[in-house]
Amino acid sequence: MSLLQIEKMTHYFGGLRAVHNYELAIEPGQVRGLIGPNGAGKTTIFNLITGIYQPTEGKILLDGTELNGRSPHVIASLGIGRTFQNMLLWRHMTVLEHVKMARYSKLTYGLAGAFFGTARRHQQEAESEQIAFRLLKMLGVEQFADQIVLNLSYGAQRRVEMARALAMEPKVLFLDEPTAGMNPEELLQMMDIIRQIHGELGMAIFLIEHRMRVVMELCQKIQTLVFGEVIAEGTPEEIQNNPKVIDAYLGKEIVE
Amino acid sequence: MEATSDKLSIDRRQLLSGLRVAASRVPLLAWFLGALAAVTLEQFVGNPLAWGIGLPKVPVLFGFVIMLKKPLLIPSIALYIMLIYLLPVAVVARLSTAAMNRLAAKLLDYKMFLSVILHLLLFYAVLHIWAEMSDYRVLVLKLMLIAVMLTLSLNIINGYMGEFSCSHPGFMALGAYGASVFTVWLFTDDRLFGAALLPPAMGPFFFPIALLIGGLVAAVGALAVAIPSFRTRGDYLAIISLAFMFIVKSLIENLEVVGGPRGLGSQPDWANLPVVFATTVICIWIINNFVRSTMGKALNAVRDNEMAADAMTVDTRKTKILAFLFGAFWAGVAGGLFAHVLRYVNPGTFGIQKLAELLAMVYFGGLNSVYGSIVGACGISLLGEALRPLELYKWIIIPLLLILVMIFRPTGLIAFKEFDVKKLIQPKKMAD
Question: Could you report the per-residue pLDDT of B50-107, keeping only the tens digit for each?
């Protein structure tokens, strides 16, 4: 049994088939990539797994627990952390508050703690603050802890979003285009960060990427998605040389 | 000529910045001590001084009413305020700064709890002595404290969670009637409920329970607004909550058991100043605790981006229900106090005008901020009282002011600021 297993997942938006018979098996500690042209359904797959959409058919299992029909926050607290393609940050909150918020499901002090400030609450809040600082430090943004997140640079915001996802202590980390809109220098830094996260925390990572270079260097196994269907799956070398993938990305070469 | 005016303005600027620096070194304790000195002074020499400088009586609310009615007396009022309030506060605060800084530091080191209690006692003493001069002051003060509770509780929903809820007067009405029915039924001889069931002497001990019942009734009512909030946001929820307010109002109007449109009176007189003050302090303390915890911050996360909140394990439904129930609970408690302060309630009170007043307080003071709520509630209540002689024009000036605030500070005067008690009571740094 894999850590995250998806069997025959299909999803329709009205009459449109967005995802068809999608299968996935992520092992603990594995880095997986999902590539494909615009509109192939990559983000839809993320949204299906994280519970934002309910799949029309198919089964999603995380560590043997079925995720189908559960609400997003339950799925998240079961161990799926994610970042978003267009960075969904909370615009009035500080960096530290962002990261601490992801510890929400780990807090057990209840209403009594929230209303009366019990010792348990102080202890748990201090603990999550400690974890938050550790993560911020790891991602190199701890100096912004007390700043409103919108005042940060784009690259720093991306890191905060990643620290936030890590604070949930997920079993699988979903990264939706972590390098979108970055310049080559920031791109290299982000790749280092992903490597570092994987090295230090050892969690499984599932990432969507547009840039070939990133997936080729980071992932152990890659799937290529076109019009909601996986057309190729394999190691980076296999994918790179797969004629179907080349067709999908570059178009067919017509030999006369 | 130009040079001198330049020099003058520089001097003035230096004076102002000097004053600001001096004020920033004064701890809260010293300000309270100064205020205590001022109100004590007023107690003893207020009346003779007022006659001496040609005022008809001691200016009840800082002389606004007198100023508006008889503009010729403005210099006398200014003199009175200078001599009775500003000068003693400034002198005592300045003189006691060093000692109070030491005391504040020592108290904070020893136990923060004690320091907070001391501050509250001093503050209450100031309010009590100030209010003792006239019944009008007591009433204004009580209503102002209740307004603080209402504004704060509305801020939870409209500010911290960012929904536009219009049902607060409805929650308040539920609380007012819930608490009133409990006390009137049990402790007074009334035409609606008959003779008292329990001896009135036991009453004051039951008053907290009455308020609690008021709050709980309001919280149950809030479920009716909270559940639609899962699916609708923005304008739609505003309309639903507005509808709720009207439903509550007409429900009470048609319930003859509680007096219908004639209202419900003869509540026992238990809501004295200490009770209202203590309830307000407890309310501020609990709400502030809540909004500063991660559970409370979840409201902000839901407001700023619900999808991200969900993905970060925040139970958004629970959070929304909690915000509505919690806000409504405190509105209910405030409503219960309101009923016992006025000792009469009728459903007409809890209409659209009350709503406008509350919304004005929240948006004037500042969203997402305990400070803002306190400032907004006190500001608008005082303004409302001060501009009373203008009668109808009052309702031109206050909305105009609101428009100005909205233009220059769209989120209110003091928005998005944390209320840190420790920062408030700590000793201020001494300059070298």
Answer: 888 888 888 888 888 888 888 888 888 888 888 889 999 999 998 898 888 888 888 8
Q: How far apart are CA B8 and CA B14, in angstroms?
A: 10
**A98 → chain B, closest CA residue:** B301
CA distance A168 to chain B (A): 7
- Name A227's bridge partners: none
How many A-B residue pairs are in contact by the CB < 8 A criterion?
A: 102
CA angle B278, A125, B318 (to 5 degrees): 75
DSSP state of B190: B
Q: In what order do the strands lie in the sheet with A65-66?
A: A16-26, A4-13, A57-62, A65-66
From residue A242, alpha-carbon distances to A236, A249, B102 in Å are: 10, 11, 77
For residue B5, the tally of other CB atoms under 10 A from its CB is 9
Separation CA B274–CA B121 (nearest Å):
10
For residue B183, CA distances in Å to A151, B282, B287, B345 come to 53, 21, 26, 13
What residue numbers bound the domain in which B99 lies?
A: 2-132
Fold assignment, A4-250:
Rossmann fold (3.40.50)
Write down the pLDDT at residue B425.
Answer: 85
Cα B293 from Cα B319, distance rounded (Å): 13
Q: Among the three residues B132, B159, B184, which one is the final residue of a domain in this structure? A: B132
Q: Which residues of A touch B286 (CB under 8 A)?
A: 115-116
Residues of chain A positioned with their CB less than 8 A from the CB of B308? 84, 88-90
**Any CB–CB contact under 8 A between B4 and chain A?**
no
User: Taking CB atoms and an 8 Å limit, are B312 and A102 in contact across chains?
Assistant: yes
Structure tokens belonging to residue A130:
């400690």
pTM given for the model:
0.91
The domain limits of chain A are 4-250
d(CA A45, CA A35): 12
Please tell me the total number of residues recorded for chain A in this structure.
Answer: 256
Alpha carbon of B240: minimum distance to chain A alpha carbons (Å): 25
ipTM: 0.91
